[in-house]
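User: Reviewer 2 asked us to show a designed sequence for the structure in our supplementary figure. I'm pasting the structure tokens here. Could you produce the per-position amino acids so we can include them in the response letter?
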């Protein structure tokens, strides 16, 4: 009886160890808050070289890369740090490194960064990380944005969105003018929402650059008289 219990316990313990080993990962997860602290990509790189995958949760190619990325991380353990970044959840990093496609793989080495554009298999990735990157063009690692820099990045994103919206409005109006689409309810609703949106923006800026309004509805004037 004791022998059977011992055998079962040993089997369970073995399964538990196998599970822990299987779930262990050498891939570091980087975020907006810890990227520069861990990588020191633009401030000295004393933590070594980093091979980083920028991905998106909905990206099929990113999901397909996961097992290969884990394999590469295990092979490069002690040589190169291997990491991943959710570029959707960490928009500051996505803006900082101009991430526009997924997955985007970058190698960081002593203040410079190199884009990987080859086949996404373990053999080629290992060759790239172990020196192949030297044959690729490099670019300086952009420094982390300051507070004003972050505001500028956000304004740039808003500007891009407004430009896309304006282009869409022009296309819709042209389609109506050419008779390619009717002036139906969806079109009227869309145009109403757009004009209300821009109206709110205009009124907001008007409120910022005008003075306060008195209770009687007249614009309050600042007194220029000096006290005696």
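Assistant: Here is a per-position design you can include in the supplement:
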């Amino acid at each position: 009886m004791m022998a059977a219990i011992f055998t079962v316990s040993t089997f369970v313990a073995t399964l538990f160890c196998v599970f822990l080993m299987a779930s262990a990962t050498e891939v570091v997860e980087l975020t907006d808050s810890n990227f520069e602290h861990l990588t020191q990509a633009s401030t000295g790189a004393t933590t070594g070289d980093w091979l980083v995958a920028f991905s998106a949760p909905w990206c099929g190619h990113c999901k397909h890369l996961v097992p290969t990325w884990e394999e590469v991380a295990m092979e490069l353990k002690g040589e190169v740090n291997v990491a991943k970044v959710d570029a959707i959840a960490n928009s500051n990093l996505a803006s900082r490194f101009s991430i526009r496609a997924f997955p985007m793989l970058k190698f960081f080495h002593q203040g410079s960064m190199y884009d990987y554009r080859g086949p996404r298999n373990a053999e080629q990735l290992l060759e790239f990380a172990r020196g192949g990157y030297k044959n690729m063009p490099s670019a300086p690692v952009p420094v982390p944005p300051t507070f004003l820099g972050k505001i500028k990045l956000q304004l740039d994103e808003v500007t891009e969105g407004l430009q896309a919206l304006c282009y869409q409005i022009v296309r819709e109006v042209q389609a109506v003018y050419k008779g390619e689409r009717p002036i139906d309810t969806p079109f009227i609703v869309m145009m109403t929402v757009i004009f209300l949106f821009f109206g709110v923006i205009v009124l907001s800026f008007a409120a910022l650059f005008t003075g306060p309004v008195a209770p009687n509805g007249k614009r309050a004037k600042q007194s220029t008289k000096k006290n005696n």
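For the response letter, you might also mention the following. The radius of gyration is 28 Å. Helices lie at 2-23, 35-39, 60-75, 91-96, 122-129, 147-177, 185-208.
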